[in-house]
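Notebook p. 47: complex prediction with zinc ion.
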Amino acid sequence: MDALMDRRGGLPLPHRRFAPRLVPAPGPKPQPVAPTGTVACKGCNRRFVTERYERALRVCSLCGYHGVVPATLRATQLADRGSLHLADFSDVEDRDPLHFNDGVAYPKRIAEARAKTGLREAFMVARCLIGGNPIVIACMDFGFLGGSLGSAAGECFARACEMAVAENRSLVAVCTSGGARMQEGIAALAQMARCSQGVSGVAAAGLPYISILADPCFGGVTASFAVQSDVILAEPGARIGFAGGRVIEQATHDKLPDGFQTAEFLLAHGMVDQVVLRADLRDTVARLLGVYSR
Ligand SMILES: [Zn+2]
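Predicted complex, structure tokens below:
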């Protein structure tokens, strides 16, 4: 009987006749965690030694899945070696016109995103050479609040356009975004017009603008500067669209075709000029810029 008594309360312990049944927690199935020094491919779960995966530009050698690349690493992958010089946008400030708070205050979310990515905003802008061509490169970082387009991100892109015009450089943008930043409301939507104005300035100066769409690219970014370029390139399998597929299905009460909103689907329907493997992106951009500079 003593064995059945709790030492602290002295109450008898419940008699356990059955083993407890484990009920899986609600929500998405947890992904396997890769051991330290390895990375799991999100396409097929195959694990790679991190260094090997980085050498392959974060592309799975088994299934071809193109993993997410942060902005600075992306610029390094595209630029000629040693030619990358980051633009100083430390004076760009975010605004909080709605005093938005969804449990965490918006300024705090910004501060967390800055600490996490080491970037000032969702855009990383730099001067560089690609195949010897002088470029202003503007890379979005999906890790910064989902690459969302707020007023400060719009300011970064607008300045990148002005820099390209002032210094007679071509413009290359790598776009990956969830869309306009909801925390800023209409001020975020206005950035679509602001960025479009920047692109028109580049076009008026007769300078080429190439956009590269990476997974995922949605909302106000896809609806503005991402598709206003002279050439639209996309990475294989990248999901590209305005509203998400589920929202469209709910609105239209129609089943969407297979592969809808993928880079390959958009290529087949004339919305993308070329789907390019990440390993070939730099050479493709360099070749295109070479053609434009003739
Ligand atoms: Zn894979």
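Notes: Residues 41, 43-44, 46, 60, 62-63, 65 surround zinc ion (CB under 6 Å). Strands lie at 38-40, 47-49, 85-86, 123-130, 133-140, 170-177, 209-217, 231-234, 274-275.
Next step: compare against the earlier run before touching the bench.
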